[in-house]
Amino acid sequence: MSSHSVTVRWSQDDDDHFTLGRYTRVHEIAFDGGATIMASASTGIVREPFANPAGIDPEEMFVASIASCHMLWFLDFARRAKIEVHSYEDMPEGTLGKDADGRVAMTRVVLRPKAECDASADQLAEIHHQAHEACFIANSVKTEVAVEPRLQDE
Questions:
Q1: Equal CATH topology for 1-56 and 58-147
Q2: DSSP category for residue 84
Q3: What is the rounded end-to-end Cα distance, in angstroms, of the chain?
Q4: In what order do the strands lie in the sheet with 36-39?
Q5: pLDDT of 57-105, one tens digit each?
Q6: 58-147 architecture in CATH?
Q7: CATH class given for the domain over 1-56
Q8: Could you state, in order of their start, the residue ranges of all structural domains in the chain?
Q9: What is the 3-state secondary structure of 10-45?
Q10: How far is CA 127 from the centre of its chain?
Q11: Residues facing residue 3 across a β-bridge
Q12: For the chain, what is the mean pLDDT?
């Protein structure tokens, strides 16, 4: 199989008071292909200035990784079915809640993909089903992942 790695870097700001819990949660994530992003705790969990709303938070990355994986499989299965896809857009949403053990977890992710293509609703449903079954990320998590395709005219 394959291995995938990133580099996560964090350091204190000059005016941080780490042991008092007053420290930045802003950090950098560098990917092996050269892209680097600013990341942060969610401002819904850690208040500003210790979190930065411009940074990508772990919950967003989790949802994005599921949506991205699904899209890539969708495109591959559409290609195999000889269906021309012109564009694809998803507006996924993750829900943070309590799991069965009472721990805070991402309990549900809903994908809302819309593909502009030359396919019937039945064909799209089948391709989304295949993509969901094949998605490495969805297969790796205990979170419920639902796929609710949007029609092209929505």
A1: yes
A2: P
A3: 39
A4: 6-9, 27-31, 36-39
A5: 999 999 999 999 999 999 999 999 999 999 999 999 999 999 999 999 9
A6: 2-Layer Sandwich (3.30)
A7: alpha beta
A8: 1-56, 58-147
A9: CCCCCCCEHHHCECCCCEEEEECCCCEEEECCCCCC
A10: 20
A11: none
A12: 95
Amino acid occupying residue 15: D
Q: Is the dihedral of CA 92, 98, 99, 105 positive or negative?
A: positive
Dihedral over Cα of 100, 102, 103, 107: its sign? positive
pLDDT tens by residue, 4-26 = 999 999 999 999 999 999 999 99
Report yes or no: 32 and 47 within 8 Å, Cβ to Cβ.
no
For residue 1, what pLDDT is reported? 83
CA-closest candidate to residue 93, choices 129, 67, 68: 67
Predicted TM-score (pTM) of the model is 0.91
From residue 92, give the alpha-carbon distance in Å to each of 16, 27, 107, 111: 35, 24, 14, 4
How many Cα atoms sit within 13 Å of 136 on the Cβ side? 7
Task: Please work out, in degrees rounded to the nearest 5, the angle formed at the alpha carbon of residue 141 by the alpha carbons of 138 and 144.
Answer: 75
pLDDT at 126: 97
Instruction: Measure the CA–CA gap between 93 and 142, rounded to whole angstroms.
Output: 16
